[in-house]
Amino acid sequence: MNQDYFELFGLPAQFAVNSTELEQLWRAKSAQVHPDRFATASDAEKRVAMQWASLINEAYQVLKSPLKRAIYLCERQGVDIAAESNSAMAPEFLFKQMTWREELEAAADDQAALKQLMQQVETEEQALNQTVADLIDQQKNCSEAAEKLRQWLFIDKFRSEIKAQLD
C-alpha cells in the first residue's frame, strides 16, 4: 500500500492542518476497519483490514506531528531531509547549539535554569514551525525547508534531553 497520507484523510497536502478535523477523520477511518467489524470475516479480509488500520494509524501519527508532517511533505516533493548524512547548518545555529549544550551542562540539577533553557528552546521551535509553514505552504520551497527541518530535528532531540533532566 503506497497511499498518500493526505489523500487517505481527504485533506489538502499542506503544512497547515486542523488537528481537530484530522483527529475526527482518523477516528472515522479507524472505525471502518476496526477488528470488531471483521470478527466473522475470512482470514484474508481480516488481514486486509489490519493492513488498512496500520496504514491509517501510521498516517495519523505523521500528520498530527508538525515536524513529521513537514518532513513528509518535503519528501513527497522529492527533497530528502538527509538528517543523518547532512549536518550542515548555518553558523549562527551551530553557535546556538554550542551555547545551549554549555547551558545544559551548567544547569545540571538546577530546575529553574533547566526550565528557562526549555523555554528558550521551545520559543526557537515555535519560530521554526512558523518558518517551515511559510516555506512549505506559501513559498513552496522544500529545499530551504529541509535545512530548517534539520535544525528542528536537533531542537526536538535537545528538548527531549532537557525534559529527561527535568524529570
Describe this structure in words.
By secondary structure, this protein is mainly α. Helices cover 73% and strands 0% of the residues. The chain has helices spanning 5-9, 19-32, 43-64, 66-76, 91-107, 111-138, 142-166. The protein starts with a helix and ends with a helix. The mean pLDDT is 94.
Q: Quick gist of this model?
A:
With 167 residues, this protein is mostly helical.
Strand % is under 5%
Shape: globular
Oligomer: single chain
Total count of strands = 0
The SSE order reads: HHHHHHH
Average the pLDDT over all residues and give the rounded result.
Answer: 94
Report the uncertain regions.
none
Helix residue percentage:
over 70%
Note the main sheet.
none
Spatial gap, N to C terminus: 40 Å
Radius of gyration, rounded? 20 Å
Structural class of the helices, strands and pairings?
A: mainly alpha
Number of helices: 7
What's the helix and strand layout?
Layout: H1 5-9, H2 19-32, H3 43-64, H4 66-76, H5 91-107, H6 111-138, H7 142-166
Helix pairs in contact: 2-3, 3-4, 4-6, 4-7, 5-6, 6-7
